[in-house]
Amino acid sequence: MEFHKKPSTFVGHVKIKVTNLEQSLKFYQEIIGFDILERTSLTAKLTTDGKTSILSLEQPENVVPKQGRTTGLYHFALLLPKKSDLANIVVHLTNKGIRFGSSDHLVSEALYLHDPDGNEIEIYIDRDPSEWNWNGEEVAMAVDPLDFETLLKNVVPENHWKGIPEKTVMGHIHLHVSELTKTEEFYVKGLGFDVVNRYGGQALFLSTEKYHHHIGVNTWNGVGAPQPSENSVGMEFYTLIYPNEEAVKETIGNLQNIGAPVTEEDGRYITYDPSGNRIELAV
């Protein structure tokens, strides 16, 4: 969790859109294990520690189902504190009959599943950073099979499922974008991230303070992919947490220097990447 506090800049919160709030709350409480921090008739803020929200849900008016081949959310990723937490969630999901995928990324071990609307969720643990392999400025990552036999040796049998651990954080976000050249300029020169892995000519992984990635972007929905409609299922926005006010002001200046939009709404600074993904800048 050292990469999700000062001096790193990291993803602190994600807001997604759903078709039926009650249905989604049932899933996020019973399957993922969140608690509700606040809610209205059409929105809910979810929490793991009872104090802060790392995920929120909204049911827009005239909502339409998730649209394919567009920009926007690929997945948001929940980072767990310990290997036993991931092992216990494997048992929990299996007991609930939930289908999920998995992968060993060398830097991390991950599960993948979808909420009732098709929003993808990654649940993962990091390997110790001493085990990550760097070649200059790029970290080695892969999509290898997950070793469930070894992972499940970490199950704590007496730990009955009590929900996702309270120290869970929003580990990273991965987005569909329409192209990579302007996107790289926006995230590097504008937001201040470093490229730490290039996946062919189709994806970039970006971070601060030598994390394996706080943000991923890809063109797997097609170069030139359009934005989804405003009332479509998917991501509403994500929040970047900067170390201090000075860093936010510097970032705003950098964004303006490259011609990126920056607005202020109710004391929050808002920008959009070149593919229309909305980002809120916070401390």
Automatic annotation (TrEMBL):
Which UniProt key words apply to this protein?
Metal-binding
Report the superkingdom from the record. Answer: Bacteria
Sequence ranges assigned to domain VOC in this UniProt record:
10-126, 169-283
Q: Does the keyword Amino-acid biosynthesis apply?
A: no
Q: Which SUPFAM superfamilies match?
A: Glyoxalase/Bleomycin resistance protein/Dihydroxybiphenyl dioxygenase
**InterPro entries, from UniProt?**
Glyas_Bleomycin-R_OHBP_Dase, Glyas_Fos-R_dOase_dom, Glyoxalase_1_CS, VOC_core
Gene Ontology MF, one? metal ion binding
**Transmembrane parts of this sequence:** none
- Supply the Pfam families for this chain: Glyoxalase
Signal peptide positions on this chain: none
What is the protein name for this chain?
Glyoxalase
